Amino acid sequence: MFYREAGQFKSTYAKDQAIFPIKQDKLGVLAIFLFALLVVPFFASTYWLNSILVPFLVFAMAAIGLNILTGYCGQVSLGTGGFMACGAFFTFKLTTAFPEINIVLIILMAGFGTALVGIAFGLPSLRIKGFYLAIATLAAQFFLIWMFTQNPWWTNYNPAGVITAPPRALFGDFYITGALATPLNKYLFLLCFVAVMALVAKNLVRSAVGRAWMAVRDMDIAAEIIGIRPMFAKLSAFAISSFYIGIAGALWAFMYTASVEALAFEVTRSFQVLFMIIIGGLGSILGSFLGAAFIVLLPILLSNAPALLGIRMSTDMIAHLEFMIFGALIILFLILEPHGLARLWQLAKEKLRRWPFPY
Amino acid sequence: MNTRMLTGWGFGVPGTIILIGLIFQLVTQVDSTFYFAWGYYFEILIAGLLQGVMYSLVALGFVLIFKASGVFNFAQGSMVLFAALTMVGLMEWGLHWALAFAATGAVMVLLAISIERVVLRPLVNQPHIILFMATIGIFYLLDGIGQTMWGSELKSLDIGIPRNSVEILENVFEGGILINRYDLVVAAIGAVMVAVLAVFFHKTRIGRALRAVADDHQAALSVGIPLKSIWVVVWTVAGLVALVAGIAWGGKLGVQFTLALIALKALPVLILGGLTSIPGAIVGGLIIGAGEQVSEIFLGHFIGSAIQSWFAYVLAMVFLLIRPEGLFGEKIIERV
After folding, report:
1. Is residue A237 part of a domain?
2. What interface predicted TM-score (ipTM) does this complex get?
C-alpha cells in the first residue's frame, strides 16, 4: 500500500540510475539516518553507545570493505585482521608524528597506506584464485601482525606493545578520540563518517570499476575476453577494500577500544568480518550493515540471555554455549537463506509491493 | 611417477638441502655472530621434518574431504580437538587407551553421519564459499560441544609412547644428532596410516568409488555410485585421521583449545602440496616443517624471532606464484 512505485515515472536517465530510484527508499534511508542522528542520542545510554552502536558502525565499515573485495570482486580474503591492524598502527604513527593535522585526514591517509599494503598482498590474486588465494591472504594476516608485535617502533616503544589513542578533536572542543571524547561524540562522528563512506561505496560499485569487479567475480576469463583488464580490476578491488578496512581498523583502535595491541587483530577478527558479509549478503552494501548488526548483537544477546531468563551459569559455561549457539545459528542461517539477510529484505520488498492485496 | 621425476626428486631434494647449508656456511664467513654447524643443521632439519609429518596428519583430513566432495573443511582442526578431548575424557573415566581409541572412533563415525545429514545434505549444490562457511559453523559448534562436555583446562594425553631423545651418528658429526623418540614414533604411525589409506583408495571397492566421485560427481552418480553414503565414508575417514592427529598433537602439546588452531598451520601445507593430492599433503608437510624450523633458527637471526607464525604462509604464497596448482595438484584448466 505504502511501498509501491506505480506513478513514479522516470523521464531522464539520471533519474533512472539514481542510487535509490524509488521515492520510498530514498525517504526511508533518509529517515533512518535522521533518526540515528537526531533521536538516538537522546535515548541511548552510554552502554548502548559504547558497546553496541560504536562497534556496529566500525564493523559495518570493515564489512563494506571486505564486501567490495569478496562480494563484488569474488576474491576471498582472510587477511582482514591484518589490514585493520595496518590502519590502526599507521594512524597511530601518523597522528603522534603530526599532532597538528586533523584526525580525519590522518585516518584517510592511513587508509591510503593500507591500500598500498593491500595491493602488495593482492598481487598473488593475479596468479591464484579461490581457496588457494584465501590461504595466501593468510600470509598477509600473520605477517602483518608479526611485524606490528615484533617492532617496538610501531607502538612508539611502549613496553606493553599497546597503542593508546591520543586526544584529538574533529574541530574546536569536539573531541573524538582519547580520554576527552564522550561516547556521544564518537557515535555522531562515526555515524556521519560511515554514512558518507557507505554512499561512496554504493556509488563505486555501480560505476565502471564496480561493473568490472562484478564481471571478474562472475567469470574472470570471460571478463578478460570482453576487454576488462583483470589486473586492474583485481588490484583496484584489493586497494579500495583495504582502504575501507584500514579505516575501519583505525576507527576500531581509536574510537571503540581506545587502546589496543596488535593481537586484537588476530585471524579471528578476519573470520568475524567474513561472517558478517556472508550472513548479511555477499555483494550488497545494505548486507554489510545487516551482517555487522547481527554479529555484534548476537554475542551480547547470548551472554545476557541466561541472566534474563534467570538461569545461573558459570562464565566458562556461557562462553562455550555461546560458541555452540553461534556455530549452530550460522549453519542454520546458511541452510535457510544462503544469500544472506539482504536477500531477505529484498524478498520482503517484493511482498511489500503487493501488500495488502497480493493478487 | 616416471623415472625422470624420480631422479629429479632424488637429486633435487638432497641438493637443495646441501645448497641451503652451504649458503649458511658462507654467511658465517661474513657474519661472525651467526652460528652454523652441519650437525646442528641436520638436527634442526630432522626435527622439522618430523614436525612436518604431524602437519601432514592434519592436512590429510582436509585433502580427503576436498577431493571427494569439493568441500574445504575448515572444521578439520576442531575435529582434531574434539577427537582428542573425547579420547582424554574417556581415558579419565578409567578406560584403557585402546578401548578409548575404539570408542572415540565410533564417536567420529557418528559425527560424520550427523554432519552429512544435518549440514551437507541441505546444502547440496550451493557454491563452495557457502559450504566453506558452513564448516566454519561446524568449527564453532564442535569446539563448543567438546569443551562443554569435557572442560577447557589443559589435559595431558599419554598412551605410553616414549619421550626421551636418542642420539645418532655420533661419529659423523661432533655431538651427534638428537632426535626425539616421540616424534619418530608419530612419524612411523603417520607413514603406516598413509600406506593404509593408499591401499584403501586403490584396492578396495569403496576406495575406487571415492576416486570416481572425486573425478566427477555426475558421472559417478550415473554409474550408480551412491553419493550420500560416499560422503559419510569420506567424513568418517577424515574423522579417524583427525583422531590419529589429535592423539599425536595432544600427546605433544597437551589437549587444549589451541589444538583446533593447528588446522591453520595445515593450510599452507595444503596449498603447497596441492589441495587434491595425498602425496602432496605429505611432501608439503615435510617442506613446511623443515623450512619453518630451519628458517626460525637460521633466518630468525637476521629478521627477528617468532617468524614461525608467518614463514609457512609466505613460503606457500611464493611457491604458488610459480606453480598455482601446488606441487602435485591437478592442472587447472579453465574454459569460458
Report:
1. yes
2. 0.83
